[in-house]
Amino acid sequence: MNHRLLTDRLLYTDVDACVRVLELLLHHVVCHVICSTAVETAAYTVNVLGNRVNLTRDAHDHRDTDVDNGDSVDNASDNDDDKLRFNGAVLTAADLMATDGVVHVIDQLILPTDGLYLTTSAGLTMV
């Protein structure tokens, strides 16, 4: 099935699938403004559907030893491995200011458990 036919089927002919697409999108929206710097290690909130959303930061030891005097130096700002995750998906862009909140971009679609119905009703297979 080509992309256009799938889009037409999901959005214009199958009301139940259209509702599922809306639920899938709302699964990614939280009620609170949460800036990425506010999450130090782990936190959680709920999305607009009332489901728990886990926010976690990859734990890495950013402390190095200064070669000259043996002092411990914090190099957190120099390390790109400090990734923030939204239910396992990595934020690829964070803290984008919008008129009605803050937008974060993630690297994958987060499927709620009942979201699997959408893929099977559309004739898609999960890989």
Describe the structure.
- The structure is a single chain.
- With 127 residues, the protein is of the alpha+beta class.
- The protein has three helices and seven strands.
- Strands 1-2-5-6-7 form a five-stranded antiparallel beta sheet, with no helix packed on it. A two-stranded antiparallel ribbon has the order 3-4.
- Helix 1 crosses helix 2.
List the helices and strands and how they pair.
Layout lengths: L2 H11 L1 H12 L15 E5 L5 E6 L5 E3 L6 E3 L9 E3 L2 E10 L2 E6 L9 H6 L6
Antiparallel strand pairs: 1-2, 2-5, 3-4, 5-6, 6-7
Helix pairs in contact: 1-2
Largest sheet: 5 strands, antiparallel
Number of domains: 2
Strand content: 25-35%
Tally of individual helices: 3
Residue stretches low in confidence (pLDDT < 50, at least 5 long) are 62-67, 72-78
Shape: elongated
Bin the helical content: 10-25%
* Overall number of strands: 7
Topology order in helix (H) and strand (E) letters = HHEEEEEEEH
**Mean pLDDT level:** 76
Characteristic terms for this protein:
two-stranded antiparallel sheet, 2 domains, 28% strand, alpha+beta
Compact description:
This protein is of the alpha+beta class. 23% of the residues lie in helices and 28% in strands. Helix 1 (3-13) crosses helix 2.
